[in-house]
């Protein structure tokens, strides 16, 4: 079973940037993704990357502001978040996906909190 550990969350002002990391306990050459859950809302898709980084896809709400990347040599997934908005405030989760098209998740991390102040 793959263990995922997110880091890099925190408090940032609107317009600022953060980079989240997700360290996997072992090499996983599967699609991976980021999801988020805001207070009182359901968990939602943020973005996904295929096994070698050649393909990425993002939710419309973050397109052009967030960038997903991965370093398979380090077993690490990243989420670069720029031009942050208060509505980006959420717990961010990384995941190993079974299928990139259906976004079916095999493994979840425990999440890291991002708070964007206005």
Task: Describe this entry's structure for a reader.
The chain is mainly β and 118 residues long. It is built from no helices and 11 strands. The strands form 2 sheets. Strands 2, 4, 5, 6, 9, 10 and 11 form a 7-stranded mixed β-sheet that branches. Strands 1-3-8-7 form a 4-stranded antiparallel β-sheet, with no helix packed on it. A hairpin with a 4-residue loop joins strand 9 and strand 10. The protein is globular. The termini are far apart. The model has no long low-confidence stretch (mean pLDDT 96).
- Separate helix tally: 0
Secondary-structure-based class equals mainly beta
Distance between the termini: 39 Å
Task: Note the overall shape.
Answer: globular
Radius of gyration: 13 Å
Indicate the proportion of strand residues: over 45%
Number of strands: 11
Low-confidence segments: none
Q: Calculate the mean pLDDT score and round it.
A: 96
Helical fraction equals under 10%
Blueprint (SSEs and pairs):
Blueprint: E1 4-7, E2 10-13, E3 18-24, E4 32-37, E5 44-49, E6 56-58, E7 66-71, E8 76-81, E9 90-99, E10 104-108, E11 112-117
Parallel strand pairs: 2-11
Antiparallel strand pairs: 1-3, 3-8, 4-5, 4-9, 5-6, 7-8, 9-10, 9-11
Comma- or semicolon-separated keywords:
four-stranded antiparallel β-sheet; 118 residues; 53% strand; seven-stranded mixed β-sheet; 0% helix; mainly beta
What's this, in brief?
With 118 residues, this protein is mainly beta. Helices cover 0% and strands 53% of the residues.
